[in-house]
Amino acid sequence: MRPIRTERLILRNWEDGDRALFHRINSDERVMEFFPFRRDRATADAMMDEFRSWIAEDGYGFAAAEIAATGECIGFVGLLETDHVPSLPAGTTEIGWRLAPEYWGKGYVTEAAEAWLAYGFDTLGVNEIVSFAVAAPPPS
């Protein structure tokens, strides 16, 4: 994937240096409050490798979000075709995100999502992009 740049972020493929952050956000009680499980390090590493391969193969996916000024990875934002949500047709394009809590409320998801939506509609030619949440959504 060619990185997508926004005013403050670089949306890019995963790098080995992102593993600790990826594990942290996937095992953090606040981040994963509405998920049925937390990932241990080995499971998080395997999931990050899967995300990285999808991006390399398709040119998009749940990509690392990096603060451009510092090079610090803060979580992920991206597009993914989903078939794991029973209420959605297979192949539906989802926009999703997960950030470390210290980056919540700073507008990073909105900034990244606007860039991904433009990429999805204008570059990929997707007709519809959906998002979903639990009935009592966590802050993000």
Layout of helices and strands:
Blueprint lengths: L3 E2 L3 E4 L6 H9 L13 H18 L3 E6 L4 E11 L9 E8 L8 H16 L5 E2 L10
Parallel strand pairs: 5-6
Antiparallel strand pairs: 1-2, 2-3, 3-4, 4-5
What labels describe this entry?
single chain, 140 residues, alpha+beta, Aminopeptidase, 6-stranded mixed sheet, 3 helices
Give an overview of the whole structure:
With about 140 residues, this protein is an alpha+beta fold. The protein has one domain (about 5-130): Gcn5-related N-acetyltransferase (GNAT) (Aminopeptidase), CATH 3.40.630. The protein has three helices and six strands. The protein has helices spanning about 20-25, 40-60, 110-125; strands at about 5, 10, 60-65, 70-80, 90-100, 130. Strand 3 and strand 4 form a beta hairpin. Helix 1 (about 20-25) crosses helix 2. It is globular and about 35 Å long. It starts with a strand and ends in a 10-residue tail after the last strand.
